[in-house]
Amino acid sequence: MHFPCSLNPTSFESLTETLKFPNESWKQWWCKTGPILVKLLISSNYSIERQHQYLEFYARVVVPFLGPYPQVVRSTLTRSGLPVEFSANYQQHGKQPTVRIAFEPLSGARGTEAIAYDRDIAKEFLSTLSELDLKGFDSRLWDTVSRNIHINATEKVILEKNRVDDTYVRTQTLFGFDFVGDGPISVKVYAFPGLKCKVSGQSSRELLTNTVKDLQRQVDCAEVFSMVDRYLQESNSYNPYTFFSWDCIEPLKCRLKVYMCSASMTRAKLEEVWSLGSRLQGPSVDNGLRYLLQLFDHIQIPDRELEIKVEHDDRSDTSKTTPLMWNYEMRSGDPSPLTKIYLPVHGENDLKIAIGIAHFMEEIGMVNIGKSYLDMIQSYFPENDLEKTDRLTSWISFAFTEKIGVYISIYYHSSIDNPWKT
Fold first, then answer.
1. Is 353 helix (H, G, I), strand (E, B) or coil?
2. 417: in domain
């Protein structure tokens, strides 16, 4: 694919004309989602060369796997069921922002028919990545994780025969990409054990424990996982929506992550989760918690216990309520995990959230980004009045280390279509 030598949001139409899409679904996915990705790359100060590189990657590699358009199958990735989500990461002491993509492969590149449950689609996508010669890409952990967490052919038949209600646990695999401005594209994989739990009768804890154990020779996180596991059992945090992720890099350098969710969206729960039930202590933990609560105060999410409906929010009258989510990042040889919190802002007024983010950034020294943030987010959604919308920003994730400082990512509804518009 060839791209014009310069790029800005108004040239998206001319850019599209240079792309050769073999079917209408691919073209529609590009036209519905590409404009937001273009704007994220521009507002994050990527060079023209990098913009072209990452847009070509999205159009040529990701879009063919998004499935039919309009959608046939809803993804667990987003509240609306959209199978792709863009986000931007900002670091207090870091370099330029990093744009990221997460998506669920819903059909193989050779066709547009969506196939539910099929891990073979994910494996086909993994093979596609292997052929790209991405620097540092390593898929060696796939087979071990997939064997433990994904349903096999026999289990797939059982699920289909018994017509199990899989509405919100159907997703088995997601892929994530970080567009590191001065480095290679980094790849992450997310594996969801919900279907395996339903068909096998095993709990998510059993499946994840077995996975970490089987990975031990390649990524030895036994000690740190034991600490995490004790807290998760003690707090009754394992549930059918627990999931697992890893980096597609050399196993010794790989991070393993366990993701949880809770209906407790309270300061007390944030403090408990952040410190792993008081197991994590020290100045860095204390400083991170202080910043986290500062962010929480700025965005003004109600402190409350939530009533969660396990369903997609894809109409104006569906439930907007979204749970708190978090993960624990584990590395080989590191006895302590790193906590990342995902504050659920889907359902909160978009202007209120944007103002809160901007003020928080300015307050912690990220002044330039903070001052420009309101204009940036309005440019992503020019057809919407942020004062009247409440689902365009999905999550704010937060982590902290002494080296990087505050590490914050903002996740957006990633289509120009607005399914909630009345």
1. helix
2. no
Alpha-carbon distance of 33 to 261, in angstroms, equals 27
The pTM (predicted TM-score) of the whole model is 0.95
Point out the annotated binding site. Answer: 85, 100, 188, 190, 255, 257, 259, 342, 407, 411
Q: Which tens digits make up the pLDDT trace of 171-205?
A: 999 999 999 987 899 999 999 999 999 899 999 99
> In total, how many domains does the chain have?
1
Condensed to tens digits (0 to 9), the pLDDT of residues 357-380 reads 999 999 999 999 999 999 999 999
Residue 246 inside a domain? The answer is: yes
Report residue 5's pLDDT band, with 50, 70 and 90 as the boundaries: very low
List the binding residues for dimethylallyl diphosphate: 100, 188, 190, 255, 257, 259, 342, 407, 411
Q: Is 348 helix (H, G, I), strand (E, B) or coil?
A: coil
By residue range, what is the domain housing residue 97?
9-412
Q: What is the rounded CA–CA span in Å between residue 370 and residue 359?
A: 6
Note whether residue 418 is domain-resident. Answer: no
CA 270 to chain centre: 20
Q: Calculate the CA dihedral of residues 76, 81, 82, 83 and round it to 10 degrees.
A: 30
341 lies in a domain? yes
